[in-house]
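Predict the assembly for these two chains.
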Amino acid sequence: MLGAPLLSIKDLSIWFGGGGRYLKAVNRASLEVGRGEIVGLIGQSGSGKTTLAMGLLGLVKGYPGLWEGQALLDGKSLLPDMGPLIIKKGQDRPGGDFQVEKRYIPYQRAHKRTLKGVLGRDIATIFQEPKASLDPFYTVGEHMIEALERNLDRHEGGAKTPGGLKGLGVGLLKDVGLVDAENLWGLHPHEISGGMAQRVMISMALCAKPKLLIADEPSTSLDVTTQAKLLQLFLRLRDKHGLSIIIISHDIGVIQEVSTRIYVMHRGSVVETGTSEHVLSAPKHPYTASLLDSFSRFGEKLPAPPTDPDAGQGCAYREMCAAYRGVLNAEQRQQCEKLKPIGQAESLAASGVSAGMGDWSKCHYRETSKAHGPGTPSHSHLEVLMAKEGSETTLVKVRNLRKRFTQGKRSFLALNDISLDIPQGSTYGLVGESGSGKSTLGLSLMALQGVDAGTIDYKSEDILKAGKARMLVLRREIRMLFQHPEGVLNSGMTIQDILAEGLEREGDIAADERRRRVSEALEQVRLDPVHGARYPSNLSSGEKQRATIARALITKPAFLVCDEPVASLDLAIQSQVMSLLKEFQRHLGLTYLFISHNLSLVKILADRIGVMYMGYLVEEAKVRHFTVAGARHPYTRLLLASTPSLDPGIREVLAHYPDVEPVRLEGGCPFRNRCPVYLANKSPLCETTMPPLVDIEVGARVACHFPLPGG
Amino acid sequence: MKQRGPFRLFLKQPGGWRILAGGVIVFLLAMATITGSAWTSYKSEDLDLENLLVPPSAGWLKRLMTTEEGLRVQEQNKAGGRGQLNHVRPANADDEDLGFLGNDSAPEPAETPKATEATGKTHVLGTDKNGRDMLALLIAGARNCFLPGLVTCAFALGLGVPLGLFAGYYGGRVRKIVGTFNSTILSLPRLVLILVVICALEPNVYYTMGVLGATLIPRVSELIATRVRILSNMGFILAAKEAALSDFKILYRHLFWYQNRAVFFIQFSLIMAESILVETTLSYLQFGTKPPEVSWGNIIEGSQMSFFSGFYWITFFPAVAIILAILGFFYLGDGLNARLAWKEGR
């Protein structure tokens, strides 16, 4: 890194609130971003990472009340100089109640004045929901023109460029990989995909030629393949424009892919900083280690991070610390039990080293790695697999399922001759991008969605032909988990009422019995039965999803359709929910259809995986078949390579794939516009005939004319 | 920390005070409707001709808002003067029709209050110029606005809520039919409709309130339909179908009771308040409840001229009753909403 950092935040605290009462959301954090550097900010939801970056710009809901500390962009302060805060009451730790003597309204005004000319000019931002961030009544072009007009002075020639504003705008759109920018110009946000919308947002941000781009969970709502392309775009922008980028994410995969340095936040404090390689290979703080381990130690019960790290005596993280339990000697352990590790600010004051840079961790023994040994699954997944083979009885048999959706004049096949078998007690993973028809298939299995043709046999009984009365019985055996637990739980009902609903079909049950069954189901998913009396809004998102699992389990089902059950959850909570699902399968012999857009997630749970693309099943095989080298269909390989990883070989694989949007191609193979094989040989066969799904090796079916050589 | 009783805790919770205040008032109204006849030994149609325009018997009420002239009259009353009416009728109101019976039957000179005391009966809130007991009048008035109000609600909510649920949940043609029905009703001028019904049928307050309720159907059903339309797209409806619930249960339980009960309570209180307002207004304008039937509106209408002559109580009590009743319903609906919102964490 050369010269002074672009953004330098020192000892910054942010309070929320008003009327004399404040909550500390960020606790004396320091952060530095160099020129042309991508910095990752990682932490669970509620850790203060968004508040730190966005609150600085006054962009957080519930405008932060107060700041203390220093934030310099290019040597210019981003915070108004209003003198020090006087804290009257409350403890100096996040989450505590404060009484602060400062009039925050003048402070806010001063802050807004300071930010004028910086926000949207030197610092640009993009948000999590790209489609929601665009005005639905503006076309893409109008968005671009609006952004350009404000920043014309930054462009050489201004409006006099050939082609005027549109020429400039189209150029910027092409810059971010939107090749078809001319056609895109007149479209409204609902007519473009989420990935395209995010690119439009980025090119709007680039209109100002900013020095710093803050991306708040930029890829969380996007497909894996779109996410991979977006991350590549960030790298390209940095190289081309020398842009500095702060990426805020809860997903360590996203961060490790692009950022050179990482800041880990927990409960408002920065607990570890360092270069990506150092932090990820040898985490120096137990909390970072637990973030990294969320999936590799899947199935084990992980100690939860402390809710208030500053309470009590000693290091609050020691329970989850591998070094504390392992390599430290008795004397060193005593140190951990007695003393709190010093924070970023004190560390800076003591050593004089710029705390924002360098490797640092809020730990007494920051030289010792806290990484756990390589993840050893508590039970051998393969063993279970072996045991299952041979004695397989098919629970669900889907044959030639076909469903056509019609939207106005356009119509398309959401399901195209899908056939698959799900053996009893196993998990079938179904993977695909949004729009691939995987959720439609899930809903069809529940008979919640009619189909045009085909059969679905459950225990050799055709669900689609079952009468209404029979269906009511079947729906107790076949249950479903949905993606958004918030929506599934009626906000006006208590958890108890919601669960008890499942028992209604069992005829009259005494109130005692019903209560017993409800609390039994809650205990099954590790929820305190006390939660039964609560309303959904009083539960955390992980607890809500566990409540929806309890809601399904209460009818003692045999088959569970899980439609993206963890997609809306934090990584650590995802891991909890996945362990629960695994456990139920082992103890209750449940069969799952696990639908997800995330192939690496599906691989954890599934025995067989089917990959869907645009309504077709393009590849189906046992789980161990799914590696970048082993995959036979080019699309499967793309999905596997899109999963964030540090392996440069995988990035190379990704480079073979063209950067185009998925389109529904009529006739022939639907994937050909994105397929490196077709683009290389332009075979007419791919243009005319949809390849059939054929057995290519034992237990592996692929729908491709030119399957890749297996590894 | 000091241990708080459940009642104190209830008051501390959101909406506690509002529910208490509104609940007490609405409870009083309901009780007055059901058991009101037991509250006073007089009936509203009793004419205590010996005690015309007797002020409230409670001392603090007597002193309240009494003008000098009123005080003088009260003194004379105490002294056992002749019929009060001759003394107190204001000069400029000589030709006014002070009441429906006022000019028809010249009141007999009242006897001394001693005679009243002898029978053991007192007029707690006084009497009007026909010698009717004010408390009995207020209770009769409460009955005549509470029950018609319920009729309004029965029409507006009883039809509006199901229509809204169906329109929002099923959409398509059902929504079109309901929408057409609603716009047809909205295109009719309400006041004219009420007057037409009064003219065409016998002037019965229940007919009037029924019509009022019918004109409120669009408001309720559109509100519910819009909410249900949004809610129908949410996961829990799909989840309810997945849990094999019947349409009726989804509509009644998930969409109405657990999602729209707060709206229901608020609409109930608003419509009750509105119907009280319309009823008293119409009665005041002599289109609604006609004498000898009693309404707060027609009590005020019949007594307004004597307000500034010292006989404040005849106008004052019904006016206070109207305000309190309306406020009571508002508070109750508002408080229930706040409490539900707090419990559900909205």
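Chain B has a mean pLDDT of 79. The interface with chain A takes residues 234-236, 238-245, 254, 257-259, 261, 340, 343-346 of chain B (CB under 8 Å).
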